[in-house]
Design a protein that fits this description.
The chain has 746 residues and is α/β, with parallel strands linked by helices. It has 32 helices and 21 strands. Strand 17 and strand 18 form a beta hairpin. The structure holds adenosine-5'-triphosphate (ATP) and magnesium ion (MG).
Length: 746
């Protein structure tokens, strides 16, 4: 056995090892939460690369989010060293793979390789425009509902010609679908669903491409397979060569994207589809304490449609789940944040804490409380930096410079800041460009005779000049930061903000500053390689494409800014899939919120909500709190909620109520509420110690590194089994190193 395999073996149990070392042919790992599925996938990649010399670029690993892909890459780096950095790995999401394929081969479908990706707001704008063009009322046909239906069709793999309308709504929506696709095509744009649908079409209509891809990928691995939809599954099969080397891992109990078309059948029928498939079950849970694991098992057992699975753990029972009932949502937020601060005070790091909830809107109250109590936090999915108005405005300039057909970006850019160009003038420009059979951008730059007069004409000319300036800078390979600064200043955006004295304008200014920092950092780290270099394009344009692509692919479960400062994480249960935190809070455990009001009357949806609850509970490693409020403000009114049924489903043996401020108890507890919180949580010191004790270094500790010299530890985390330190060195700046490379210094 190779020394590498020996090293891996020591980190795996025998079933895991069996899965890692199964090399040829299909493999299915169907196992419960925290049983090491993701770990197995990562080790498998390392084993294939290290022991079988399979080049990293010939392995395709599909993960659920960009963040998960980065994490897997990081763990791989620990196992393989920097080698994994030098060769470009195909560890990515389905959407990222789609982009890369369409950039490479999209011309076969008549797609300009410089296509843009429209985000959900842009997509909605196009739906509205289609409705308007077709003279369909957006009151009768709500744009979001129409969009959802189209998206459903695309995820089922259906182009307009293949859709079979079921009713009048479908018939009308199909008309919109046709017009929407036409508008996308005109703008040389694609939406998220197209990334998959068109990639699949690319394979099915081009044998040579399919053959090339099948030859390229010697192994395909898929994490969270229970949440793949029809088109994703079809793509996998299109990528899969004769060797049938496909490994999928997942857990039917964690299938939580049925509402987006995920098909749990994909995993349940996998061994029938691939008859030579090896099936491995993992049963030991390494993540959670006994109480957490058994409580989660008791909840999920209430589902009827499931495969029986039993997980066990060697860990102690640990603390029981803590239930806290608060008077209202503000009290709930105060309780949670106070509790977290107590933990931080005891030495727990903010990174180890997550607050999870069913809907993004719940986060607002927590955000306010964090600000009030000065707790550093990040909200995954809630903080949509790139969807802010001022950011989208500036990006629309960039997009339009790069793609002169992009209608939506053109309209946005020319109107921000306002240049006195109204709807009629816009139509005139668009019409004139169409008549001249030119892209909008080229038409404007050519200094064509604009069919406008007065203020509108002047505005359009100024816009065209700016556009030209930007294009020239891109062609002459200038700097990305200069381009952005120029756009912000020359467009008048900055001046407009500076004249505005409101708080909001300051906020916008600082967001633009943040964007500049992001671009600066991006530009510093960017290196040309075979993947991101486009033929005949300047380096700057390749850079901008890469940047825009990254922005477009930040999904709702990805966090944009991975700051080094430790922060408490706030996110939905959906976004938490696959992650783990020593200390978790599940908030707003109330009927109508969780399970959601829409699911309550549907047994199928209710089971999906219960799986979501199972996902939430199994994120916790050491300690899990469940909180609910008796009263909650929502949509401007005050609602009294009943406790979530999931709370009742947790056996009493595994939970204890530590705070009860419900109406009947209120008078009693109100008087001593602060003391109450202290005494109810006083028994955690042991836990605190456990949380902070398993690192061999602490923040603030002085260390010595053989090449970087003396430094101070700023952050400690695990990368797989290795302890990783972020160290501020006295002379060499901040670096991340594995703890085995440093010594404690006196
Ligand atoms: P999920 O279902 O939530 O995606 P998972 O099955 O993918 O979970 P992992 O995230 O791979 O589970 O592993 C859960 C935790 O258990 C991780 O912290 C991992 O490092 C640890 N772990 C997995 N296998 C072992 C092992 N053999 N020995 C020690 N720790 C392990
Ligand atoms: Mg996992």
């Amino acid at each position: 056995m190779s020394s590498f395999l020996e090293k891996i073996q020591s980190q795996l149990n025998s079933q895991q090892f069996e899965a890692v070392t199964h090399v040829e042919g299909p493999l299915l790992i169907l196992a419960g939460a925290g049983s090491g599925k993701t770990r197995v996938l990562t080790c498998r990649i390392a084993h294939l690369v290290y022991d079988y010399q399979i080049p990293l670029e010939r392995i395709l690993a599909m993960t659920f989010s960009n963040k998960a892909a980065r994490e897997m890459h990081q763990r791989l780096k620990v196992l393989l060293g920097d080698e994994s950095d030098r060769r470009y790995p195909w560890i990515s999401t389905f959407h990222s793979v789609g982009v890369r394929l369409l950039r490479r081969f999209g011309d076969r479908l008549g797609l300009d390789p410089q296509f843009v990706i429209y985000d959900s707001n842009d997509q909605l704008d196009l739906i509205k425009e289609s409705l308007e063009n077709l003279r369909i009322s957006d009151k009768a046909f709500h744009p979001k509902a129409v969009h959802a239906r189209i998206s459903h069709w695309k995820n089922e793999g259906l182009f307009t010609a293949q859709v079979k309308p079921l009713n009048f709504f479908d018939e009308t929506t199909l008309q919109v679908y046709r017009s929407y696709q036409e508008l996308l095509r005109k703008a040389q744009a694609v939406d998220f669903d197209d990334l998959l649908l068109l990639s699949s079409q690319l394979c099915s209509s081009n044998e040579d491409i399919q053959a090339q891809l099948r030859g390229q990928w010697q192994h395909i691995l898929v994490d969270e397979f229970q949440d793949t939809n029809r088109i994703q599954y079809r793509l996998l099969k299109q990528f899969l060569g004769e060797h049938q080397n496909i490994s999928v891992v997942g857990d039917d109990d964690q299938s939580i994207y049925g509402w987006r078309g995920a098909r749990v059948e994909n995993i349940l029928n996998f061994d029938r589809e691939f008859s030579s498939c090896k099936v491995v079950k993992l049963e030991e849970n390494y993540r959670s304490t006994g109480h957490i694991l058994e409580a989660a098992a008791a909840v999920i057992e209430k589902n009827e449609e499931r495969h029986q699975k039993r997980l066990w753990t060697r860990s102690d029972h640990g603390s029981k789940l803590k239930l806290a009932i608060l008077e209202d949502d503000r009290e709930e937020a105060r309780f949670v944040i106070t509790e977290i601060k107590r933990k931080l005070h005891a030495g727990v790091s903010a990174d180890q804490v997550a607050v999870l909830y069913r809907m993004n809107s719940i986060s607002r109250m927590f955000e306010e409380e964090c600000l009030r109590q000065g707790l550093p936090y990040k909200i995954v999915g809630g903080f949509r930096f790139y969807e802010r108005r001022e950011i989208k405005d500036v990006l629309s300039y960039l997009k339009f410079i790069m793609n002169p057909w992009d209608l939506i970006s053109f309209r946005r850019a020319i109107g921000s800041p306002p240049r006195g160009i109204g709807r009629v003038s816009l139509e005139k420009i668009e019409q004139a460009a169409a008549e001249a059979q030119e892209s909008l951008g080229n038409f404007l730059i050519r200094e064509a005779e604009l069919p406008l007069s007065g203020k509108a004409k002047k505005g359009a000319q100024a816009f065209a000049e700016l556009l030209k300036w930007g294009r020239d800078l891109v062609d002459s390979d200038g700097s990305f930061v200069d381009l952005l600064v120029g756009l912000i200043e020359k467009s008048g955006t900055l001046e407009q903000l500076q004249q505005d004295r409101s708080e909001e304008a300051r906020d916008r200014e600082s967001n633009l500053q943040e964007l500049l920092s992001a671009v600066q950092e991006f530009e510093e780290l960017w290196r040309p390689n075979s993947e991101n270099q486009r033929e005949g394009a300047s380096l700057l344009s390749s850079k901008i494409f890469d940047f825009l692509e990254r922005v477009a692919l930040i999904s709702d479960v990805d966090q944009l800014d991975e700051r080094t400062q430790e922060q408490v994480t706030f996110m939905t249960f959906h976004a938490a899939k696959g992650l783990e935190f020593p200390l978790c809070f599940m908030a707003a455990m109330e009927e109508g919120i969780f399970p959601s009001s829409r699911s309550i009357d549907s047994p199928v949806q209710l089971e999906e909500e219960r799986r979501l609850c199972y996902v939430g509970m199994t994120r916790a490693m050491k300690l899990l709190y469940l909180t609910r409020a008796e009263r909650r403000r929502s949509f401007g009114s005050i609602n009294y909620g009943l406790p979530s049924r999931f709370l009742d489903e947790i056996p009493e043996a595994h939970r204890e109520c530590i705070v009860d401020h419900s109406r009947s108890e209120k008078a009693f507890f109100k008087r001593k509420s602060v003391r109450d919180q202290e005494s109810a949580t006083a028994d955690f010191d042991e836990f605190d110690q456990e949380l902070t004790g398993h690192f061999s270094y602490r923040r603030g500790e002085k260390v010595l590194h053989p090449s970087f010299g003396e430094g101070v530890v700023q952050r400690v985390e695990f990368l797989g089994d290795d302890e990783c330190l972020t160290i501020q060195f006295l002379t060499k700046g901040r670096k991340r190193v594995l703890s085995q490379f440093v010594k404690k210094s006196a």
